[in-house]
């Protein structure tokens, strides 16, 4: 046990986010701990604070807050990334701010906390993909969620071919149909011209980050691969979206 665990301390994490953030301090129960969301001010960034103790050291605190951010990014939608974090004795410090953001004082609820490690990994990858500001790696980030389910290219393409017939998002359907018209096999296109073209550079096709046409094409593919990632999270890993929760509870 560290001195900070024994005598008391906090783990403080500043965040950069497009997710709505409360305008007043709010305490949320997550993972058996109380996490405080502190509001943004003119000088200070939105911040997460958790108390260190006998069952929560610095490493566990960081993991807890990262998993909380993944759950919140999934249920609220948007980008949510750590900017700076520090363990501290005494009172939790404030962390300098970045850009401004939307205020959201609605209840923070329905946060998923799956016991399945693969489901937690999928949530983490979804948040990471949402936070990336480089389109090719954003595409690859969403695709990696499918990779959790299927280790081979043939299995990934088979899963995509089945799932792609089930999606209902208008933008994703529009892009699916455009790809089918131009390339025929949508699953093969997403695997070869998307996943492999971003991840590898030793074979064709390859995505050149200096080629605006490559970036434009993958940008057009993003709504489709993102919807497929969300479909995998809901239907393969059992992590319900906020839209599904609202529909099932008739809110």
Could you please describe the fold and organization of this structure?
The protein contains 9 helices and 5 strands, in the order αββββαβααααααα. By secondary structure, the chain is an alpha+beta fold. It has a 5-stranded antiparallel beta sheet. A hairpin with an 8-residue loop joins β3 and β4. The longest helix has 24 residues, at 212-235. The radius of gyration is 20 Å and the shape is elongated.
What would you report as the Rg, rounded to the nearest angstrom? 20 Å
Mean pLDDT: 87
Count of individual beta strands = 5
- Class from helix and strand fractions: alpha+beta
What characteristic shape results from the CA principal axes? Answer: elongated
Strand count, sense and barrel status of the largest sheet are: 5 strands, antiparallel
Number of domains: 2
Instruction: Report how far the terminal alpha carbons are from each other.
Output: 45 Å
**Major β-sheet strand ordering:** 2-3-4-1-5
Q: Please, how many helices?
A: 9
**SSE order, as H and E?**
HEEEEHEHHHHHHH
Approximately how much beta-strand content do the residues carry?
Answer: 5-15%
DSSP helix fraction: 40-55%
Taking pLDDT < 50 over at least 5 consecutive residues as the criterion, the unreliable ranges are none
């Amino acid at each position: 046990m560290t001195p900070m665990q024994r005598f008391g301390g906090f783990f403080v994490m500043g965040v950069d986010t497009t997710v709505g953030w409360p305008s007043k301090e709010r305490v949320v129960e997550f993972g058996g701990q109380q996490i405080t969301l502190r509001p943004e001010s003119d000088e200070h960034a939105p911040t997460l604070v958790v108390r260190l103790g006998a069952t929560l050291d610095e490493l566990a605190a960081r993991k807890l807050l990262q998993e909380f951010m993944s759950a919140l990014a999934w249920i609220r939608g948007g980008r949510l990334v750590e900017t700076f974090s520090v363990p501290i004795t005494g009172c939790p410090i404030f962390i300098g701010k970045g850009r401004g953001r939307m205020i959201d004082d609605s209840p923070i609820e329905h946060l998923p906390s799956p016991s399945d490690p693969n489901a937690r990994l999928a949530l983490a990858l979804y948040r990471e993909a949402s936070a990336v500001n480089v389109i090719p790696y954003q595409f690859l980030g969403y695709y990696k969620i499918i990779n959790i389910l299927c280790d081979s290219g043939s299995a990934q393409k088979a899963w995509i071919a089945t799932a792609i017939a089930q999606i209902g998002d208008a933008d994703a359907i529009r892009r699916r149909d455009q790809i089918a018209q131009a390339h025929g096999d949508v699953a093969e296109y997403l695997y070869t011209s998307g996943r492999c073209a971003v991840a590898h550079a030793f074979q064709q096709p390859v995505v050149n980050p200096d080629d605006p046409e490559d970036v434009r094409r993958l940008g057009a593919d993003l709504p489709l691969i993102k919807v497929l990632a969300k479909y995998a999270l809901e239907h393969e890993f059992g992590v319900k979206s906020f839209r599904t929760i609202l529909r099932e509870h008739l809110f």
